[in-house]
């Protein structure tokens, strides 16, 4: 469930998919993975979320050394993500 307040929320389906953090009115979905390399099967939760919220910005924060884009899912190294967050560039 998504609400319109400024709360930090999570999202979970009845089938067990879960997103770690939802910002705004489903404007940003963030998954946190402690991986050095994100693979296709790590994207399934964000893909499921996109079925309900296709316009959301979808981000995986990981330990990968470089940012990259897999279709419409951004994979961002943790330190780069924090810089973007601190500079108000996530929302």
Features:
32% strand, 6-stranded mixed sheet, 2 helices, globular, 91 residues, single chain, alpha/beta
Write the layout of secondary structure elements.
Layout: E1 9-12, E2 18-23, E3 28-32, H1 44-52, E4 57-62, E5 68-70, E6 73-77, H2 78-86
Parallel strand pairs: 3-4, 4-6
Antiparallel strand pairs: 1-2, 2-3, 5-6
Report on this model:
This protein is of the alpha/beta class and about 90 residues long. The protein is about 20% helix and about 30% strand. The chain contains 2 helices and 6 strands. It has helices at about 45-50, 80-85; strands spanning about 10, 20-25, 30, 55-60, 70, 75. A 6-stranded mixed β-sheet has the order 1-2-3-4-6-5. The two termini are about 20 Å apart.
Q: What's the gist of this structure?
A:
Helix content is 20%, strand content 32%.
Summed up, the helix count is: 2
- Alpha-beta classification: alpha/beta
Largest sheet data: 6 strands, mixed
Tertiary shape: globular
How many beta-strand runs? 6
* Low-confidence runs of at least 5 consecutive residues: none
Elements, N to C (H/E): EEEHEEEH
What's the mean pLDDT score?
Answer: 92
Rg is 12 Å
Strand order of the largest sheet: 1-2-3-4-6-5
The span between the termini is 19 Å
Strand content: 25-35%
Percentage of residues in helical conformation: 10-25%
């Amino acid at each position: 469930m998504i609400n319109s307040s400024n709360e930090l929320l999570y999202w979970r389906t009845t089938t067990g998919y879960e997103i770690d953090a939802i910002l705004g009115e489903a404007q940003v979905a963030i998954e946190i993975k402690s991986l050095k390399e994100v693979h296709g099967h790590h994207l399934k939760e964000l893909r499921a979320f996109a079925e309900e919220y296709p316009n959301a910005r979808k981000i995986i924060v990981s330990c990968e050394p470089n940012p990259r884009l897999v279709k419409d899912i951004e994979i961002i190294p943790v330190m780069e993500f924090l810089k973007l967050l601190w500079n108000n560039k996530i929302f």
